[in-house]
Amino acid sequence: MAGLMPFASRLIAGDAGTAPQPEPQNVARERIRKRYFPDVVLRTQDDRKVRFYKDLIKDKIVTINFFYAQCDGVCPGVTANLVQVQKLLAGRVGRELFMYSISLKPEQDTPKALREYAGMFHMGPGWELLTGNPEDIELLRRSLGFTNPDPKLDQDKSQHIGNIRYGNEPLMEWAACPGLADPKWIAESISWVFPTSTVRLPKNA
């Protein structure tokens, strides 16, 4: 899956006769923001207007996935897994980790529809469902790398990629995992981008 994986700071050429130097962190971070995080306006399930980068991503550890409420494909399974992930990371979600699910069908998925979807899956605090203008959603989808190399499949929303992107924005550490993987493995993978010790998951999870 194309996108944010190669987020390590790039090297830039120095003066003649000098070795390349690491790109300054603030420069690298701004380069990543411009390329991958368009600051489009979205609306939450509570009909609150937010900016994608400024309000949701900047200075945070996050998970990002795409879905739509009436999906009969991978969406219910991925959402159910994320509900389990939220429980496994209880105490961190909404404080250290913020979860975002973005609708691929914003014309249908109004804030009201998203609230009903959240209630159906018993989602807890710290998890925002997001809708917005179709053009902005498509820009986000492509910028974040949720695309299929086959143009025909890429246009078919029922065939959309069920991956989960997760990352630590200030540290510029990003990765992805399959949304239908074991929830415990997903939670453990997400814990890798926490700056502190690895999350200890319940033994009976």
Global Rg: 18 Å
Uncertain runs are 1-16
Major sheet strand order: 4-3-7-6-5-8-9
Report the total helices: 7
Structural class: alpha+beta
Q: Helical proportion?
A: 25-40%
Order of SSEs, N→C? EEHEEHEHEHEHHEEH
Give the CATH H-level superfamily.
Glutaredoxin
CATH fold name, please?
Glutaredoxin
CATH architecture: 3-Layer(aba) Sandwich
For this structure, what is the CATH class?
Alpha Beta
| Tally of domains | 1
Distance between the termini: 28 Å
* Mean pLDDT over the residues: 86
Strand content: 15-25%
Q: What this model shows, in words?
A:
The protein has 205 residues and is of the alpha+beta class. It has a single domain, classed as Glutaredoxin. Helices cover 32% and strands 21% of the residues. It has helices at 25-36, 52-57, 75-88, 111-120, 134-143, 151-155, 183-191; strands spanning 11-12, 21-22, 41-44, 49-51, 61-67, 97-103, 127-132, 163-168, 173-178. The strands form 2 sheets. The protein has a 7-stranded mixed β-sheet with strand order 4-3-7-6-5-8-9. A two-stranded antiparallel sheet has the order 1-2. β3 (41-44) and β4 form a beta hairpin. The radius of gyration is 18 Å and the shape is globular.
Summarize the SSE layout with pairings.
Layout: E1 11-12, E2 21-22, H1 25-36, E3 41-44, E4 49-51, H2 52-57, E5 61-67, H3 75-88, E6 97-103, H4 111-120, E7 127-132, H5 134-143, H6 151-155, E8 163-168, E9 173-178, H7 183-191
Parallel strand pairs: 5-6, 6-7
Antiparallel strand pairs: 1-2, 3-4, 3-7, 5-8, 8-9
